[in-house]
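Good morning C.,

I know you're traveling, so I'll keep this short. The sequence:
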Amino acid sequence: MISLKDKNALITGSSRGIGQQIAIGLAKQGCNIIVHGRTSESCSETLSLLKKYDVKIYCVPGEPSEESKVNQLIKDVKQLEISVDILYNNAAIMTPFHENIWKHSWDEWMDTFKVNVFAMYRLCGAFIPNMIENDFGRIINTTSGIKDQPELAPYGASKWAVRKLTEDIAVKLENTGVRINMLDPGWLMTDMGGQNAEHPVEAVLPGALSPALIDNNGPNGAFFSAI
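The tokens, ready to paste straight into the viewer:
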């Protein structure tokens, strides 16, 4: 297990829920945190929770469903002039449950893939090359154990796309100090998971930190479960 002290982590969707817990967990490891939410205001709670840790904290807002705003997010992070050592692609959306499985609209499919897949891909492309140059990097893409639920088809398909992309990108990182893996956080009580979920959101720790703590020759393109 490596030390993350003084490393820098960008965690998308860290203004609340699972991302917020991951930010807290990494801060406890001495990792500096770049908090992301759709707006600066939405990041305030997480920023407040992180103040008690001896780490540097930043807030970079951005709407992950719009290409121009994802590009601006990347630009704003780079203007911090710090290395992004850990990229936690956690931001995701889930469109409504449709009992008629053929009623998922074109827009629902597109909105889901823009946030859950396209933004993740763009962020990987923005920060992985520098990680390779620095001979260190950890990318963790949040996926899901969802299956057999065509009522949530756009979400389920997007998470399988995340898994496929993670596995394919991993091949290009084999002989580097960069590892890319995926995490299933489990069914948690969040805005997305609902109050009938099996576990409180806090249960995502410490398991969600495991893919960030692996050695440079550790798992690559692998599936981790937080619970």
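Safe travels,
E.
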